[in-house]
Amino acid sequence: MNRVYLKTFGCRTNIYDSQIMAQNLKDFILVESEEEADIVVVNSCTVTNSADSSARSYISGLQKKGKRVIFAGCGAMSKGESLFQEEKVFGVFGHSEKRNINTLLKRENPFFEPGDLKSLDETIVEDFSSRAKAFIKIQEGCDFNCSYCIIPSVRGRARSQDETKILEQVAKLAGNGYGEFVLTGTNIGSYGKDTGSSIARLLQRMSMIRGVRRIRLGSLEPVQIDDAFMELLDEPWLEKHLHIALQHTSEEMLVKMRRRNALRRDLELFEKIAAKGFALGTDYIVGHPGESEAIWEEALANFRRFPVTHLHAFTYSRREGTHAATLKASVNGKVAKARLKILEEIVAENNLRFRKVHNRVLDVLVEERKGAFQIGYDQYYNRVHISSPLDLEKEWVQIDSAEVREEGNFATLAQ
Ligand code: SF4
Questions:
Q1: Average of pLDDT values for 15-37?
Q2: What is the pLDDT of residues 354-385, one digit of tens each?
Q3: Which residue of 143, 267, 346, 405 has the fewest CB atoms within a 10 Å radius of its CB?
Q4: Which domains are assigned to the chain?
Q5: Pocket test for ligand 1, best of 117, 149, 224 (most atoms within 8 A of CB)
Q6: Nearest C-alpha neighbor of 153 from the set 41, 20, 320, 285
Q7: Confidence of residue 4 (pLDDT cuts 50, 70, 90)
Q8: Residue 12: pLDDT over 80
Q9: Mean pLDDT, to the nearest integer, of 249-259?
């Protein structure tokens, strides 16, 4: 029994966690699908009730196929015990136990090892062979307490990875040819609060490493963007795109959602950063309890004033164990979907306009081939589809000017 398939659900942090697991699996063969595997490790997500159900139904499918199922990831804390007791899974291990995966998977008897919520991954992931860019996890956990979010209880409080370790890891990866680095974590803007460092300081030190060409950041919280960070906006190594999580644009809703950001400050911040030529992404939740028609209308009018070019929006989904789950659901699902669609349309228009204006010297890191195109992202985090007889995968190319279409940017490279 030595073929293992790692099934990853959820966010970027989970993709990274799966890399850590893979790196620690010394005595097993990693396979590409559940069919080929004897053991399936489910790196689960528990962010909504429906994320829990998808993991559950995936596990039932595996059980029917006679696979040995090991349950890990965020769900290990919230659902691990019940799945284990119901004998739906052979073993459970929590985030802190990832480094022990090799030993755990050799166990002959069922095991339940939820671990703790205090430790940080020590594993340095050196090879992201299937990707052109490297993801670096710089911290774990979150000290915020947003009404709808279960993450702080399944990933624990915010704690930062040692700066020297991160820099070592970046230097190794840069030495292996990686030029683009994506900093990830649960709440990366809180980096360094516990260790006397800061995200701005870390970025600056990273940028000095030979080979580091572009640094991209995961999601930041508006309140975490300080003067030191703002001073980095002109640096050539910083991606000209930031993702700053608003979650809403009604002052009243921000309070109901127990957010720390505030509308007027958010708008000023977005305008300031956009004026520096940045594309701006955001997260947004529509349909949280309390989002009445009047509140929504006002939020929408506010949203139109934000220079948002990329959107990661969801309709509210109830999560047991959160404050919002105790509130009366007040927005019907269809209404929430319609609201979401409006936001998406606004941002699609903003994005198109942005791409037309910022269409000079696009620095593209080509990531993959899809059909007739080789696809990558430019410095504004816009997709560029390139037609070329050359093999450009994992290469940096410069596009003087792209053909800007609604569905994306297109370019041809003859040589
Ligand atoms: S900032 Fe809010 S939404 Fe993000 S992980 Fe923390 S509690 Fe959850």
A1: 91
A2: 999 999 999 999 998 999 999 999 999 999 99
A3: 405
A4: 3-113 (3.40.50.12160), 134-356 (3.80.30.20), 362-412 (no CATH)
A5: 149
A6: 320
A7: very high
A8: no
A9: 98
By alpha-carbon position, which residue is closest to atom 2 of ligand 1? 146
Q: What angle is formed at CA 311 by the lines to CA 305 and CA 313, rounded to 5 degrees? A: 105
Helix axes 163-175, 199-207, angle to 10 degrees: 30
From the CA of 155, give the closest atom in ligand 1: 5
Phi, psi of 362 (to 5 degrees): -90, 125
CA 205 to ligand 1 center in whole angstroms: 27
pLDDT digit string, tens, across residues 31-64: 999 999 999 999 998 888 888 888 999 999 999 9
Token couple for 364: 């593209």
Q: Which of 144, 247, 248 has most ligand 1 atoms within 8 Å of CB, for mutation?
A: 144
**For the residues of 191-244, what is the DSSP string, one character each?**
TTTTTT--HHHHHHHHHTSTT--EEEE-EE-GGG--HHHHTTTT-TTB-SEEEE
User: For residue 80, which phi and psi values (nearest 5 degrees)?
Assistant: -55, -45
Average pLDDT over residues 71-97: 93
Specify whether the CB–CB gap between 384 and 403 falls below 8 A.
no
